């Protein structure tokens, strides 16, 4: 019997140990290969070992064909690709849509997400919703992009708004009558209503009503107009400006001509003084307030300050000017503040300044980065707060917070008004009487449809575009809807 033979037992033991050793080597080699593969290494028979990156690609609408360096990848969005690190030309194509293109650089062992492309139709199909004898005085969209509020005419004793449901755009609009008692200056010469902002409940909105010799502010309740509130009458005050607190309608900021800033509680009709000599201010989320004041400042200077939970903190000192730019937003749990005047040489951006000024060891906020687009007309955050864009005329400077990248570019022509953010990655506006749209970095510029104003809106899913156009006869103004779908994405008849 073999197991009783010492020589055979020794040979069997040796074979067993060799097998274990070979198995261990195989496992080690496999693990090493997998680790290097996970880190982005692969082997090419022509070039040897190469270093890869991971590329995620998506688009709206999906199903777009992916081309890299003009070569069809035989895949559609959404998709992921493991490719050799380097620079590439990425193109997305879909029947009926304009191509989307971008040059990109994929670094070794990195993950790059190109998930924001938006494909616009080659031949947008527009449809008239309603015609007006004169251009509407107000066209405004609720934050959830469902309710489109139109005021056909200013100067009425009891203004009659039209409320369109963007999810059912062909249905007749609801009528929202603002009661005449809500307006002290109803029907007076020069009477003009404008929208300051909607509350986050998508139901109430803050209106500014100006007329010859007067100014007042109204909280309009679109679902129950009779419960609308005249803030001047409620608080027995005549503010020069008003804003919502925390994007809600239960509290409002009221700014007087002498610079005194109050916080008013609507339910109790009570006022709380917040600060004096405020030149301009910007309400923020979380109850924060960013404002400019010349209180205690030397001649030729002003302070940018932050009000947090009743306490004031200094952000920076600015040269006094005729116009100030102050903005702030939160991105990935960090607060970013922007402060500049028209006399500033640069637009400074601060990251979490409250953390710095509250720290006794630092006690001062320092700029995180600066945009050199001085004298900018506007500075704004994209809808997802990832991008900060500054514009003056046809010149743009954009900072990508997530990727720490700056872009500067010029357009061939400038619009009558600055472009606005369409969403988290695109700017849109009226240039030369057409709807113009482009990516945050100036790429993929497209002209879509004619427009009579820079009031350009989308429904909740960005399927429909709404804007005003001048009728062919040049007499009527038309509220128009444009379907942004094409080809196979169009609804079947």
Describe this structure in words.
With 493 residues, this protein is mostly beta strands. Among the domains are: 42-114, Immunoglobulin-like (Sandwich), CATH 2.60.40; 159-276, no CATH class. Strands 1, 2, 5 and 8 form a 4-stranded mixed sheet that branches. A 4-stranded antiparallel sheet has the order 4-3-6-7, with no helix packed on it. A hairpin with a 2-residue loop joins strand 15 (204-211) and strand 16 (214-221).
Can you tell me the residue ranges where pLDDT is under 50 for at least 5 consecutive residues? 43-48
Which structural category fits the helices and strands? mainly beta
**Which term fits the overall shape?**
globular
- Total strand segments: 40
Counting copies of identical and different chains, the oligomeric state is: single chain
Report the biggest beta sheet as strand number plus sense, adding barrel if it closes. 4 strands, mixed
Radius of gyration: 30 Å
Enumerate how many helices there are, as a single number: 3
Mean pLDDT: 91
Strand-residue fraction?
over 45%
Q: Report the end-to-end length measured between terminal Cα atoms.
A: 85 Å
Query: Percent helix among the residues?
Result: under 10%
């Amino acid at each position: 019997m073999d197991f009783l033979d010492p020589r055979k037992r020794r040979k069997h033991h040796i074979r067993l140990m060799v097998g274990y050793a070979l198995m261990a080597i195989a496992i080690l080699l496999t693990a090493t290969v997998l680790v290097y593969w996970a880190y982005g290494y692969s082997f090419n028979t022509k070039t040897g070992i190469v270093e890869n990156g991971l590329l995620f690609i998506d688009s709206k609408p999906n199903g777009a064909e992916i081309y890299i360096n003009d070569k069809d990848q035989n895949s559609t969005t959404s998709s992921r690709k493991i490719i050799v690190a380097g620079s590439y030309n990425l193109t997305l194509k879909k029947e009926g849509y304009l191509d989307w293109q971008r040059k990109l650089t994929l670094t070794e062992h990195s993950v790059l997400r190109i998930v924001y492309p938006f494909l616009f139709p080659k031949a947008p199909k527009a449809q008239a919703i309603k015609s007006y004898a004169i251009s509407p005085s107000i066209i405004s969209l609720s934050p959830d992009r469902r309710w489109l509020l139109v005021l056909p005419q200013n100067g009425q004793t009891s203004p009659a708004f039209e409320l369109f449901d963007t999810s059912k755009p062909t249905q007749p609009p609801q009528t929202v009558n603002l009661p005449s008692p809500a307006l002290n200056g109803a029907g007076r010469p020069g009477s003009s209503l404008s929208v300051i902002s909607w509350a986050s409940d998508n139901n109430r909105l803050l209106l500014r009503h100006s007329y010859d010799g007067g100014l007042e502010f109204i909280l309009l309740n679109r679902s129950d107009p009779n419960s609308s509130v005249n803030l001047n009458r409620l608080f027995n005050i005549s503010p020069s400006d008003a804003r919502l607190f925390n994007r809600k309608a239960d509290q409002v900021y009221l700014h007087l001509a002498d610079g005194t800033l109050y916080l008013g509680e609507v339910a109790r009709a009570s006022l709380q003084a917040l600060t004096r000599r405020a030149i301009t201010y910007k309400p923020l989320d979380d109850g924060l307030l960013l404002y400019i004041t010349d209180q205690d400042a030397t001649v030729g200077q002003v302070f940018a300050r932050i009000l947090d939970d009743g306490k004031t903190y200094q952000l920076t000192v600015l040269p006094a000017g005729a116009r100030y730019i102050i903005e702030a937003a939160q991105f990935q749990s960090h607060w970013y503040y922007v402060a500049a005047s028209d006399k500033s040489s640069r637009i400074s951006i601060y990251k979490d300044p409250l953390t710095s000024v509250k720290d006794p060891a630092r006690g001062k906020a320092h700029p995180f980065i600066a945009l050199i687009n001085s004298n900018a007309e506007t500075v704004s955050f994209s809808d997802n707060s990832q991008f900060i864009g500054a514009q003056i005329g046809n010149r743009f400077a954009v900072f990508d917070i997530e990727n720490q990248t700056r872009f500067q570019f010029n357009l061939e022509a400038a619009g009558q008004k600055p472009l606005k953010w369409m969403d988290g990655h695109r700017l849109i506006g009226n240039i030369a009487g057409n709807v113009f749209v482009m990516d945050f970095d100036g790429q993929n510029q497209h002209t879509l449809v004619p427009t009579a104003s820079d009031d350009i809106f989308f429904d909740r899913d960005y399927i429909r575009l709404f804007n005003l156009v001048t009728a062919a006869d040049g007499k009527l103004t038309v509220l128009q809807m444009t379907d942004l779908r094409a080809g196979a994405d169009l609804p079947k008849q």
